[in-house]
Request: fold
Amino acid sequence: MYQLDYVPIKPANLNDYFVRYKETNYEKYFNEFLYFYEPVLNRNAQLFINKYSLDNNRINDLKQIFSSLLWSELQSYNSDIPLLQLIKYKALKAWHKYVRTVCGNVHINNDNLYQNLRKVALLYSQQPNDKPLEEAVTDIANELNISKNTVRNCIIASTQFKQNSNLDIHNKDNENYFNSSITDVEMDTLSPEEIYFKNEQQEELKTALSKLKPQDLRLIELVFGICPNCLKSKEKITIREASLIVGLTAEGAEKRIKKILDQLKEELQQ
Reply:
């Protein structure tokens, strides 16, 4: 799709193309970026299509959304965040807007409704098949802190939204096709800048955790209910229960946790 009549020299960092464009205003640098980035863009767009069960013929639309958004952002770009990182998050939000407004059988005219729709659809898909509808509605309403009527409407709308378009709006797959630790729900509520910095903080925390001794890491994992690899929440247990698993007394485990937290705080402040 992004072909050139010559083969440009590829820079070590693709973000260099944006710097060159800003310095010279030569459009060729934008075109050369797309030339080299297209294989990555193809892969990301296809992963998005697979994840949300879209028609394969939508790939060019997704690519055009990305390139148009990138061009627009490039004109006013003035940030310490590398543009290529920033645009990934903005493009993903734009792709979801495309899904919301174009791909469904029912038009969803605002982001809040779309967010609620996806949250409700995901939770509803996880309910046991033999669970009464009203019980599921009550549980979902309580978890999301929204009304039962909203939950019912979202369940109906999500079913209609998927009809004919084969769109899996709730999708339980956690494929990180943009190498992002941000969930889809967070993606809808945070700005691209907030997402970028949150990912940076999470990477720093994972690095700090990786420096702990195995016993200390296990203790943190058990007591705080956090996966050290992906930082997702998991079931947590009491310090007394954790101390038995790692071979410490309850008092020893409590003292050890305080030292571990001080160590992590020091690592994160460097």
